Amino acid sequence: MNKAQIQSFDNRHIKTSANQAHFTIQEIADMMNLPKERVRKIEAKALSKLRNKMQAKGTKLSDLI
Predict the structure, then answer these.
(1) Are 2 and 43 contacting, i.e. CB atoms less than 8 angstroms apart?
(2) Above pLDDT 90, what percent of the chain?
(3) Backbone angles phi, psi at 59, to 5 degrees
(4) CA-to-CA separations, 13 to 23, 26, 28, in angstroms, rounded
(5) Is residue 56 packed enough to be buried (19+ CB in 10 Å), middle (13-18) or exposed (0-12)?
């Protein structure tokens, strides 16, 4: 994943501390100075890459939880 994909994915899906909330797509767009639709596309591509890598390695989502 490229830097924008990692940043978008991290901000939307990964909590770095117990009291840190997830960001909305609009909040991420504002942080990255990008249109909301572009952030959505970046996020979708990052998730697709992650799914493909998981499938290639035979990893299931349930294995990560």
Answers:
(1) no
(2) 9
(3) -90, 135
(4) 8, 14, 12
(5) exposed
